[in-house]
Amino acid sequence: MLFALALTFASIAFAQHWHHGRPHLNQHAHRALMSNATEDSFPTPNTSCDYWLENINHQGLSPFHGNPSSYQVFRNVKDYGAVGDGVSDDTLAINSAISSGDRCSPFNCESSTTTPAVVYFPAGTYLVSSSIIVFYETQLIGNPNCLPILKPSLDFKSPPGRIGIIDGDSYDPSGLLGFSSTNTFYRQVRNFIIDMTSFPASRSIRGIHWPTGQATSLQNIVFQMSDAPGTQHEGIFMEEGSGGFMADLVFEGGLNGANWGNQQFTMRNLTFSNAVTAINQIWDWGWTYKSVAINNCSTGLNMSSADPATGQLTVGSVTLIDSSIENTPIGVATARNVNSLPPTAGSLIIENVDFNNVASPVSGVSTPSINEISSRFGAGRAYTPDGHTIDGALEHLIRPTSLLQSDGRFYERSKPQYSTEPLEMFYSVRSGGARGDGVTDDTAALQRVINLAASLHKIVFFDFGIYRVTRTLYVPPGSRIVGESYPVILSSGRFFANMNRPQPVIRIGIPGDKGSVEWSDMIVSTQGSQAGAILIEINIESPPDSPTGLWDVHTRIGGFTGSHLQQVDCPKTPNVATPPAAVNRRCIAAFMAMHITKPAAGIYLENVWLWTADHDLDDPSGQNTQITIYTGRGLLIESQNGPVWL
Ligand SMILES: *[C@@H]1O[C@H](CO)[C@@H](O)[C@H](O)[C@H]1NC(C)=O
Ligand SMILES: *[C@@H]1O[C@H](CO)[C@@H](O)[C@H](O)[C@H]1NC(C)=O
Ligand SMILES: *[C@@H]1O[C@H](CO)[C@@H](O)[C@H](O)[C@H]1NC(C)=O
Ligand SMILES: *[C@@H]1O[C@H](CO)[C@@H](O)[C@H](O)[C@H]1NC(C)=O
Ligand SMILES: *[C@@H]1O[C@H](CO)[C@@H](O)[C@H](O)[C@H]1NC(C)=O
């Protein structure tokens, strides 16, 4: 389903402004160079802003990039000329930090796994006069200890096709999104304040345009908008895609805090206040909202949208749990009734939602009373043999207590960013001897770093790279592992090739191990025929109040440079039946993506995408050509005692 916007373009002129390699100055060097500044006039460093990611040695290496030795993964916007003083126009500098180094732009490229970038924003106020254009596999990361502020200038104006202060996917001159939205993977924005309050309320402006697919996340962003009557400000706009995850977002003011449609999303911990409509749901297939707090808006969640031509409802379903709506006349606006089409559209589940000073908790064709909604309410089709319609209070829903936190809500926990950990706590795998060049066998080097870090309670930092392993990597209890962009662990060789003797690539604990592991921002993959590879095996037994967590850890099986499982290796043959005996065994790429075994307990997975590639992300034709990759199984959960949160 596509909601293509009809856009016409006079011209696309993307000014590029290259500042290469200005070294990042530390305070000491900075002071020495500013010799005419007096000690007194020089601001003393706000040490509480220190963040390890800003200061760590930047050794990311993209081995399959055309020019890996000069390609920079980590980019500090200040090294590209951004000033961050709230006065200088930093648009060109920020866009140059993103675009430098022959990357995959929305205007000439569909996707690429060889040009990842972490674009880092130190504390500061960055004034922009037009959109920040996001390229493929880009993470925009602000300093979580002193959130950088992005501010539109009074003359903020984006050329046609650019939307928002941060444009996650721009339109190209043909009127289509530059990256097709459902293939827009691997990107994040986190730790920002987007302050639109000084921009005229009567003029339309959006914080983030985010039509993305899987393995994308927005985290810890505050959207400040005008709440003046008639405000045209919007926090997030998203018209299509196949997402995705968002958490820890705060929306203040605006016409719509969020105005979005997509196939599906999972969202957690969103706060809205003083908006006309907190959430305008344009369309969806299915959507899960958890821990949403809406206060002092006119409408909480509007899911009544219909196709103007046919009158058919465009929102498939919404699930709203563990949330609150207060001081808002209309809680959830719906348009479903027994005759509305399609028959299952407008499905709604409300569970454990507090309504406080809300005249119509659910309003639309029928308006159930607060008593009917009480703690659980459903509207839609039930999955029973006769597919009967439900409309009203739901009984028989039991929340297993082992899945709950002390306030009765389902347990939730955000991705750790280690914001208060000093730099000395981080142990780089590249400094520890791993090469990450896609060729060297890094098994022994990685295992050494992981073991040493766990024994010293340090945090393992995977500099970007492609780390080839030929044996299982064991991750002991107490490990904390975080990647730069999405580094890849690539299994390879005979050890993982026997379908009758499957072997884990990453093994989190062995049966009997107790403790917790934290792991974020990484991809596990295989190279060539790996019919016995279990990409991630979890055996560890973690206490429920300190579970083992995986955040933004994904499997990617086939479909990228270095996998030997690309379009030339494993072409699709849609017009030829393939009997089992004729299966190309070189394209049997994994035994299983993830196995949570019987002893495993206390496991929390957030935004984990277990993907077997249906297309080649580095297809030289730029067409995202489909491929044929065989993976035996996806996810197997055998945990006997749980809890396991997905
Ligand atoms: C130092 O002096 C130069 C030349 O007068 C001036 O351009 C520059 O802005 C001064 N720097 C500071 C930090 O005052
Ligand atoms: C400096 O640190 C304090 C906390 O000690 C914080 O409240 C403040 O926002 C920081 N200043 C800047 C400019 O980030
Ligand atoms: C929710 O998000 C806010 C804002 O980022 C954050 O301060 C808070 O800790 C988050 N709460 C949870 C339960 O993650
Ligand atoms: C409620 O929101 C309106 C804007 O819609 C704002 O003017 C008003 O100050 C808010 N009230 C409170 C108590 O925050
Ligand atoms: C909900 O959105 C529709 C447009 O899709 C609009 O016509 C309607 O007025 C809105 N309802 C509420 C209660 O905000």
Automatic annotation (TrEMBL):
Example of a GO MF term: polygalacturonase activity
Keyword Iron: no
Alphabetical keyword list: Signal
Record domain Rhamnogalacturonase A/B/Epimerase-like pectate lyase: where: 74-302, 426-495
Pfam families per record: Pect-lyase_RHGA_epim
Annotated signal peptide: 1-15
Name under which the protein is recorded: Rhamnogalacturonase A/B/Epimerase-like pectate lyase domain-containing protein
Lineage of origin: Eukaryota, Fungi, Dikarya, Ascomycota, Pezizomycotina
